[in-house]
Design goal:
Number of strands of chain A: 0
Number of domains of chain B: 1
Mean pLDDT of chain A: 79
Radius of gyration of chain A: 24 Å
Largest sheet of chain B: 2 strands, antiparallel
Number of domains of chain A: 2
Shape of chain A: globular
Strand content of chain A: under 5%
Largest sheet of chain A: none
Low-confidence stretches of chain B: none
Low-confidence stretches of chain A: 305-340, 343-373
CATH topology of chain B: ABC transporter involved in vitamin B12 uptake, BtuC
Mean pLDDT of chain B: 88
Distance between the termini of chain B: 47 Å
Strand content of chain B: under 5%
Largest interface: A-B, 71 and 64 residues
Structural class of chain B: mainly alpha
Strand order of the largest sheet of chain B: 1-2
Helix content of chain A: 55-70%
CATH architecture of chain B: Orthogonal Bundle
Distance between the termini of chain A: 80 Å
Oligomer: heterodimer
Chain lengths: 373, 302
């Protein structure tokens, strides 16, 4: 019985993570937008829903006692709006700016959660968040299973909606923009608009995940939303395979199992005073895992061809770096970006032989040209 | 109103600026934003701290330079730390970034740098625990310099060191062949290669300079405040903001951006409240991105 209750609890947590990962998959897997502030968007959702649905509290703002479902919808709207604003500010610029800005959003959200005591309860967090099936709290098994059922239902709805959406014309435009921006734009698709939409949608799903989790734990505090959360979700998506909704689900279950398992191992084996250190080592292991996967199998378990990050077919955005600098550091001459048709290859070769070498014999071992005068 | 915030801002601005030079060089020459840069900072500081304690264990107590809180061990250790951090950056490039760059997707490199950042930071936490450490626990008496401003000898020394380093990097970038090559690569990589610039060498130089400066910035924080595994990660947003405000690729821009952000942060501490300090860099970043995304001294991408 205990084991089933724990299993249900474990699955519920993992499913909340998979909801966040699904949101990230819209942004990164489908559209190729790099979000390093996931924790921020999750926190926005959690706090929005918590403030709207908790009973009145004289100590702070909010406490409107709304129904849970309204809180969830509001969480989606707020997180989506913040994501849209972030996207509007940065998506006309270089791709890295979005990463830096989302990173900043997460920092600021953390700061507000910690310091705006009247709004967020500060470091003490927000308690008394209404839980669905609160009446069952006396019977842990039933309570956990009921929670699992409702979280699973939310995940299923979002999952099916996203699968449909990525196969829809809208999703195809996103993939087209990811694969070949110029071609898509020449068909009259507004790249920036579509990217902002995708970023907002992903942010809304993350916000929903935060709200769902808040109502399932019943209490939120700023330290739930540290950069480690962002990092875990990234590993989940990359392990599962970016671009694939199934991959997002499986990856988050797998990585959460590894994480929870190694955490349990640490707390069982390591003496209490050393546990903080061992927990740090856990993050090191996951970080190394992320880097190794990026190096060895960038497609993850389920990433198909053409998934974001799935090998050199996809060009970097917004300006295709591979095209601008066919010989960027380390890029071999045979890289697909530089390959081109036989005719283009000939055109590229001719100047090397004729014009700028002016008929001088090539120095041995200096295929790269003269070093400098 | 006290003008003390100007000195505080100048100091934290110097640290941010030194770090931002590395960020801006990595961005303009290697073309990716390196989220691990802050952790180079922390690693360099801990390396310096380790060497200082090692020297202390071997030689015994060394008297500090008269008004300062540190003596020659710190100077030696700083040099060792700078070399170590530069080599660390080179090693990480060889193991991770260079291989991913070869695949031609810069955003994947950004992601890898984020993973590496998390791993490096947690490894520091594992090795040294998250308790803060100090170079010196001695308390310095601040001397009044007029207008209600006070400054300690350590602060003057570190500001002077920053000025020397910034001038050095600026001269390197504008007066030497190596600097010309670095600027050429940042402007047009292919053309630079065609005229015979050894790009691999430029890349190595970039990592060495960026790492060494990150180490100095970290040690400055360590001397003035404290050493923590998180110190570099906390500096990341101010450093990025400074690099973007100054204009990506511009060394003087990064330093001026750092000073602007440092002084604004210090002013925010005085006028709004210390708890909102970290938001200042973000507000400036958003303002720059909305109104002048190429920054103060940036050039439009060709």
């Amino acid at each position: 019985m205990e084991l089933i209750a724990y299993g249900a609890f474990f699955l519920t947590t993992a499913l909340v993570f998979s909801l966040i990962t699904l949101g990230l998959n819209v942004q990164w897997g489908l559209t190729g937008l790099f979000n390093v502030g996931i924790a921020g968007f999750v926190a926005i959702g959690a706090y929005t829903s918590a403030l709207l649905t908790t009973p009145d509290d004289p100590g702070r703002f909010g406490g409107l006692d709304w129904p849970i479902i309204a809180g969830w919808l509001a969480a989606m709207v707020t997180a989506g709006l913040v994501a849209a604003l972030t996207g509007l500010a940065t998506l006309r610029l270089k791709a890295d700016y979005l990463a830096i800005t989302t990173f900043g959003v997460a920092v600021v959200v953390q700061l507000v959660a910690l310091n705006a005591q009247r709004l967020t309860g500060g470091p003490f967090g927000v308690g008394f968040i209404p839980r669905p099936f609160a009446g069952l709290a006396e019977r842990p098994l039933l309570f956990n299973v009921a929670n699992l059922a409702i979280v699973a239902m939310v995940v299923a709805v979002v999952f099916l909606a996203l699968v449909r959406l990525s196969a829809s014309p809208w999703g195809r435009v996103l993939k087209a923009l990811r694969e070949d921006e110029r071609a898509a734009m020449s068909l009259g698709k507004n790249a920036r608009l579509y990217r902002v939409q995708a970023f907002a949608l992903g942010g809304a799903v993350m916000g929903l995940a935060g709200a769902v989790q808040a109502h399932f734990i019943g209490f939120i505090a700023p330290e739930n939303y540290l950069p480690t959360l962002t990092f875990q979700v990234w590993v989940m998506l990359i392990v599962g395979g970016s671009g694939s909704n199934v991959g997002a689900l499986v990856g988050s279950l797998l990585v959460w199992a590894i994480w929870a398992g190694s955490g349990a191992l640490v707390s069982a084996v390591v003496p209490t005073d050393q546990q903080a250190r061992a927990a740090a080592l856990q993050i090191v292991a996951i970080g190394v895992m992320l880097c190794v996967i990026l190096l060895v199998r960038p497609t993850g378990l389920f990433g198909g061809r053409g998934a974001a990050g799935a090998g050199p077919r996809r060009r970097a955005k917004p300006k295709p770096e591979g095209r601008r600098h066919p010989t960027a550091p380390g890029v071999s001459r045979a890289s697909p970006a530089a390959r081109g048709s036989p005719r283009a290859r000939r055109r590229r070769w001719r100047p090397r032989r004729r014009s700028w070498r002016c008929g001088y014999p090539r120095a041995p071992g200096r295929s790269n040209g003269a070093r400098r005068p | 109103m006290s003008l003390q915030f100007l000195v505080d801002g100048l100091l934290s601005g110097a640290m941010i600026g030194l770090g931002a030079i590395g960020v801006t060089l990595t961005y303009s020459i290697l073309r990716f934003s390196n989220f691990a840069h802050g952790d180079f900072m922390a690693w360099g500081t801990y390396a310096t701290l380790t060497v200082v304690s090692a020297i202390g264990a071997i030689v015994g107590k060394v008297h500090p330079f008269a008004p300062l809180s540190f003596g020659w061990p710190l100077v030696v250790a700083l040099l060792v730390g700078m070399a170590f951090t530069g080599l660390l950056a080179l090693a990480l490039d060889a193991v991770l970034f260079a291989r991913l760059r070869a695949k031609g997707q810069m955003i994947i490199v950004v992601m890898a740098s984020f993973g590496a950042s998390m791993a490096m930071r947690s490894l520091l936490e594992f090795l040294f625990s998250s308790r803060p450490a100090y170079f010196s626990r001695a308390i310095q008496i601040a001397m009044p310099v007029g207008f209600g401003i006070r400054i300690t000898p350590d602060q003057i020394a570190l500001l002077a060191l920053t000025a020397v380093l910034v001038a050095g990097v600026h001269l390197l970038m504008t007066r030497t062949q190596a600097g010309r090559e670095m600027r050429a690569v940042s402007q047009n990589l292919m053309l630079a290669r065609v005229v015979g610039i050894d790009v691999a060498r430029v890349v190595r130089l970039t990592w060495l300079i960026g790492g060494a400066l990150a180490c100095v910035a970290g040690v400055m924080i360590g001397v003035l405040v404290q050493v923590r595994p998180l110190m570099g990660f906390d500096m990341l947003l101010p450093m990025f903001s400074a690099a973007i405000l100054g204009g990506i690729g511009s060394v003087p821009g990064a330093v001026i951006g750092g000073l602007v952000i440092g002084i604004s942060e210090a002013a925010a501490v005085q006028f709004i409240g210390a708890e909102w300090r970290a938001a200042v860099a973000f507000v400036i970043l958003m303002a720059v991105l909305f109104f002048r995304p190429i920054g103060l001294f940036g050039v439009r991408e060709r």
